[in-house]
Amino acid sequence: MLRYVLKRLLLVLPTLWIICSLVFILSKVVPGTCQDWQQGEIGQTLDQVESPGRTNNPEPIVPLFYFSIRSQAEPDTLYRVQPETHRLFLKSLILTYGNWPAIATFYHTLAALEKQLSQIPQLAIPGKQHLTQQLESVFKLTGANQIRQTLVNVEQEARRQLLPIYFISQVKLGQQQVKIIQQQAQPASHLLPAFTWHGTKNQYHAWLKNFILGDLGVSCRDQVPVNEKIAEAFTNTFFITVLSLGLIFFLAFELSIWLSKASQFKWRSVFLTILYALDSVPLFIIALVLLTFFASSAYLPLFPTYGSGRNLAAGIPKIVAWIYQLPYFILPVMSLTLASLPYVTGQIYQAVQHLQQRDFILTARAKGLSERVVLRRHVLRNALLPVITLFTGFLPAVITGAAVIENIYSIPGMGLLLVGTVQARDFPVLTGIVLYLGLIKIGAHILADVFYFLADPRIRVQA
To answer: Which end of the chain has fewer CB atoms at under 10 Å, N or C?
Structure first.
């Protein structure tokens, strides 16, 4: 059996690596970073393009992958320009005009203007903030005419604010350089490809090394290790998911057996209609209804409205803490169970009904076995294979539902963590969440293979 499981692991691990690699690449190509979202974008000079050591970023600026394919108009060290808006600004100019030396000279001038303006005291210039915003807006433009007009506006504002003559001269120099970029454009140069080999000193190689070692890095929001953040959130999600799955499949089996009995024929259509109607109600509607009727002070405030009850004093025994936290999870588990029970019950009931007409079931009844023995010992045992398949595909859906429930009931689990991570562009944590979810999916497949191995003798013989 161990050999059988190891063979399955060798097949699914490459899939996990591909998924996480795609998330890593996506985190690098999506515009904007967590640092930009938090701190705003602070310009740095083009000296970083030629001197990568001169940077305020504590992490070394290295290329994304082992190699890069770029246009000949683009320098092979453009990745060192920070922040990202500056790099995208330079890329757009290269794509439009292609003259990198002229573009680099103009960018030096812009960097010098930003530095000079930042060194002038705020009290000396009442409109310094407006002037700074005008200068920063240049990095969001792509057309030479728009850039030149913005610099003309900056010059007029600088004269109005009585700024030093060297600053105004620098602005006029920038206007002339934009004109040169426009006149000496080489738009065809970016059509010729160029290949650059960067070696192992790249972001993906460092990430892959840490990934293999189990180090997912730290969150760029609060510098907390990713494993620690996810483990704390996953505890609540795991608790909700396991309780919900246990209730769903237990109730689904019992309802399927009850509906399959001949004595319940008159109730069968009524209960199936109720289940089909309940299956059409979205999860968040069920959660909100339960929250309103069983946690609101307007009706029956039997359960807490939000949270997980983890704000307990240190030193409290675990059993006491679990008893205290249990009411916080009753409504979320009920919501997931009610939303998923109709579908699972319908699938198991269909499998049981299909087996009812098989010859070995008719033979068991002909032998005089009771209906209970026939259903529980013969029918359910043979219905396990489709149920195992159902469980494998249903587990990710329950985890997704748990994420929705956590947002409704404000439970600090994977759902709340995922929403906050996406909003903050915290890609290290996002990659970790994808990894954990991938591991759960892989674990579900391996668990299903183990169940198949135990339930079907044919698979044991083949293995």
So the answer is: N
Q: Is residue 110 part of a domain?
A: yes
Helix axes 318-356 and 265-279, enclosed angle (nearest 10): 120
Q: What is the pLDDT of residues 374-390, one digit of tens each?
A: 877 777 777 777 788 88
CB neighbours of residue 383 within 10 Å: 22
Tell whether the torsion through CA atoms of 132, 92, 431 and 405 is positive or negative: positive
Q: Which neighbouring-strand residues pair with 67? A: 197
Take residue 398 and report the two structure tokens written for it: 């329950």
**Quick check: is 25 in a domain?**
no
Scored b (16 or more CB within 10 A) or e, 74-108 reads: bbeebbbbbbebbbbbbbebbebbbbbebbbbbbb
Average pLDDT over residues 267-273: 83
Chain centroid, CA 142 distance in Å: 31
- State the average pLDDT for the chain: 81
Best CA proximity match to 420, nearest among 85, 38, 41: 38
- Same-domain pairing of 300 and 323: yes
Q: Both 305 and 190 in a single domain?
A: no
**SS3 per residue for 167-189:** HHHHHHHHHHHHHHHHHCCCHHH
In this prediction, residue 178 carries a pLDDT of 92
Which amino acid is present at 67? F
Any idea which residue has 């728009």 for tokens? 146
Domain that holds residue 161: 36-213
- Token pair 């990430």 is found at 207
User: Under the phi-then-psi rule, with left for phi > 0, alpha for psi from -120 to 50, and beta for the rest, what region is 317?
Assistant: beta
d(CA 363, CA 137): 82
Contact 363, 270 (CB under 8 A): no
Q: Which two tokens stand for residue 437?
A: 């979810």
**pLDDT tens digits, 208-229:** 888 888 888 888 888 888 888 8
Residue 428 lies in a domain: yes
Tell whether 189 is covered by a domain.
Answer: yes
Backbone Cα Rg of the chain: 32
**DSSP string across 121-163:** -GGG-TTHHHHHHHHHGGGG---HHHHHHHHHHHHHHHHHTT-
Q: Residue 205 and residue 149: Cα distance in Å, rounded?
A: 44
Q: Encode 161-172: b = buried (16+ Cβ within 10 Å), e = exposed.
A: bebeeebbebbe
Q: Are residues 256 and 171 in the same domain?
A: no
- The verdict on 335 and 422 lying in the same domain is yes
Query: Taking the mean position of all CA atoms in its chain, how far away is CA 70?
Result: 29
| Alpha-carbon gap, residue 373 to 391, rounded angstroms | 24
Residue 382's H or E segment, with its range, is helix 380-382
